[in-house]
TrEMBL record:
Residues of the HRDC domain: 532-604
SMART domains according to UniProt: DEXDc (SM00487), HELICc (SM00490), HRDC (SM00341), RQC (SM00956)
Species assigned in the record: Nonomuraea indica
Cofactor: Zn(2+); Mg(2+)
Record GO terms (molecular function): helicase activity
Name of the protein: DNA helicase RecQ
EC class of the enzyme, as a word: isomerase
Family: Belongs to the helicase family. RecQ subfamily.
Domain Helicase ATP-binding, residue spans: 25-193
Enzyme Commission number(s): 5.6.2.4
Region (Disordered): 506-525
Superkingdom of origin: Bacteria
Keyword set, alphabetical order: ATP-binding, DNA damage, DNA recombination, DNA repair, DNA-binding, Helicase, Hydrolase, Isomerase, Metal-binding, Nucleotide-binding, Zinc
Length: 604
């Protein structure tokens, strides 16, 4: 029987384990249970795939991501691993073939949707075969605090009673300390060993820009920093998804929409294109992306504020799984705060309280003058990290300033309009009053006679919007639910009464940044495979070969080889199968299958 490290080298073609992997794998091989918290791209899959190959029997993987099972199985098959799946997309014949293979002991890994395990027939089938382990992927789906709750996950606690001797491993990339505890108790893993890896994604550059003209800003970001790259643009509503996708396409950027309002076939087709083609942009609601393990997503852009830091971290975490530089970019402005403050007022009391906590954490992240990564890691329970050098606030630290007087001016304007609160006076109107603009609306309501009229000449229009946004973010100003009018809060009085100082962040102009492709950026970043100038033509030839091969076989390009592997091949330009076999990501099976073709491509 092979040892874990032999399996890693021979089957997967990697020479060493990543941090945490070896311990987890050995613990499982020895029959222990594990709960694994590891960031996206940390290499969770190997933590159950290798034990499943080392232990006798089939590893049963529970995953909610039905749409991706085919790709996962294809990727394993390309490595020479015997894998199959059972889910509702198959017809009877297909299912029967997989079941027969399982019963004959011919599967190393079997992927199942969680709802399958509620079906008695599935449980009976599993009882007739030999199981090496249960892996519960996306384990945060069992948590009700989170945003991906799936009731079927609650039934997974029963696995242990039915198969007490079979080790279980639960894995997730998003867990605050509270979610971690919830996963542990709901899945009955309190006795299991818990492995908590660092949550940092050092290759992701985080940036939050002040939103002014979102479409133009997005286009400029894509053109200047990610031309030809694959990425995801998240929007809140279906209609903005459609509009932005059309806008990008009109501007020569290949883009497709994805949201729950599209029919299933269109969604599946767009997802498949994203996985298979190079350089496609998907514009999507949060309906898109869970479990998408496309390694070369180079950017994730948010045009609207995510509802929680968990959501933000999970969505941005889809960028740069291959550990090459990637960008998490967000445009964020006053309207986001107004809209989310209003949304957070919906639902029952408990729901509202949760929404507000989530939103406050998200707003604090947007408004911080400190390192964004430090704040993110702190949120996920990793305290006291050092500033990263690879986020916007590290690279051009925003100034903070004493905004007490402007805050008082703005709040007292709101207070003076309070008597007329049935009217819809938005931020624009309040700023007009402060700036002394005699607009039709100002004159109509006689607001030019207010004592605050024209007292705000020290700041410009955009600055005043920034003040309002930050007061809302800090809870010193609120949105009234019915009309969306700004109103004072319990704490506004402290500011008006001079008992509380208000620190504000000066919105930095966009930092000039050149494309960080292939360079190690920032203190904490891991070195990446650099691509020397002279290797670029060969890299492009290899990419073209890969695209053609992937198309021929109907699999995503990365199933053939990852970008990082192609970069290394292009740089080393190996001239024999033995040399090629040493490249990271070239295992036994792929060497046999593609070795000759790769050498030919190099020689041509
Ligand atoms: P996760 O599920 O944690 O997001 P994956 O299991 O998809 O991450 O792994 C991310 C990438 O890292 C994959 O492309 C995988 O092949 C690669 N990888 C995992 N472990 C290793 C290793 N020990 N050496 C090199 N690459 C690895
Ligand atoms: Zn930083």
């Amino acid at each position: 029987m092979d040892t874990p490290i032999e399996v890693l080298r021979r089957i997967f073609g990697y020479d060493s384990f990543r941090p945490g992997q070896q311990e987890i794998i050995e613990h499982l091989v020895a029959g222990g249970d594990a709960l694994v918290l590891m960031p996206t791209g940390g290499g969770k899959s190997l933590c159950y795939q290798i034990p499943a190959l080392v232990r006798p029997g089939t590893g049963v993987v529970v995953s909610p991501l039905i749409a991706l099972m085919q790709d996962q199985v294809d990727a394993l098959t390309a490595l020479g691993v015997r894998a199959g799946f059972l889910n509702s997309t198959q017809d009877f014949g297909e299912r029967q073939a997989v079941e027969a293979a399982f019963l004959a002991g011919e599967l190393d890994l079997l992927y199942l949707a969680p709802e399958r395990l509620r079906v008695e027939a599935t449980l009976r089938l599993l009882a007739k075969g030999e199981i090496s382990l249960f892996a519960i992927d996306e384990a945060h789906c069992v948590s009700q605090w989170g945003h991906d709750f799936r009731p079927d996950y609650l039934t997974l606690s029963g696995l242990h009673e039915r198969w007490p001797g079979v080790p279980r491993i639960a894995l997730t990339a998003t867990a605050t300390p509270a979610t971690h505890a919830e996963i542990s108790s709901r899945l009955g893993l309190d006795q299991a060993r818990h492995f908590v890896a660092g949550f940092d994604r050092p290759n992701i550059h985080y940036r939050v820009t002040a939103k002014s003209e979102p479409k133009r800003q997005l286009l400029e970001f894509l053109r200047s920093e990610h031309p030809g790259d694959a990425g995801i643009v998240y929007c809140l509503s279906r209609s903005s998804v459609e509009k932005i996708a059309a806008f990008l396409a009109d501007n020569g950027i290949p883009a497709v929409p994805y949201h729950a309002g599209l029919d299933a076939a269109t969604r599946a087709a767009h997802q498949a294109r994203f996985l298979r083609e190079d350089g496609l942009v998907v514009v999507a609601t949060i309906a898109f992306g869970m479990g998408i393990d496309k390694p070369d997503v180079r950017f994730v852009a948010h045009l609207d504020l995510p509802k929680s830091v968990e959501g933000y971290y999970q969505e941005t975490g889809r960028a740069g799984r291959d550990r090459l530089p990637a960008t998490a970019w967000m445009a964020y402005g006053l309207q986001d705060v107004v809209q989310h403050r209003r949304l957070a007022l919906e639902g029952d009391e408990a729901h509202r309280r949760r929404q507000v906590l989530h939103l406050d954490a998200m707003l604090a992240l947007c408004e911080t003058v400190g390192c964004r990564r430090v704040m993110l890691l702190d949120y996920f329970g990793q305290k006291d990290s050092a500033p990263c050098g690879n986020c916007d606030t590290c690279q051009s630290p925003p100034e903070s300033w004493d905004g007490t007087v402007p805050a008082q001016k703005l709040l007292s304007t709101v207070w003076r309009l309070d008597r007329e609160r049935r009217q819809r006076f938005g931020v624009g109107h309040i700023v007009d009053i402060l700036l002394g603009k005699k607009t039709a609306k100002v004159l109509q309501h006689g607001h030019d006679s207010l004592t605050v009229f024209g007292v705000g000449g020290e700041l410009g229009n955009a600055d005043w919007h920034g003040v309002a946004r930050q007061l809302l973010a800090q809870g010193l100003l609120a949105v009234e639910p019915d009309h969306g009018t700004l109103v004072l809060t319990d704490t506004s009085g402290d500011v008006l009464g001079g008992r509380r100082e208000v620190r504000l962040r000066r919105d930095a102009p966009r930092p000039a940044r050149t494309r960080a492709s292939g360079t190690s950026n920032g203190a904490g970043a891991r070195p990446v495979v650099e691509l020397p100038e002279e290797a670029v033509p060969l890299f492009e030839r290899l990419r073209a070969w890969r695209a053609a091969t992937a198309k021929e076989q109907g699999v995503p390009a990365y199933v053939i080889f990852h970008d990082a592997t192609l970069r290394e091949i292009a740089t080393l330009s190996p001239s024999s199968l033995a040399e090629l076999g040493k490249v990271n990501g070239v295992g036994e099976n792929k060497l046999a299958k593609y070795g000759e073709q790769v050498l030919e491509t190099i020689a041509s």
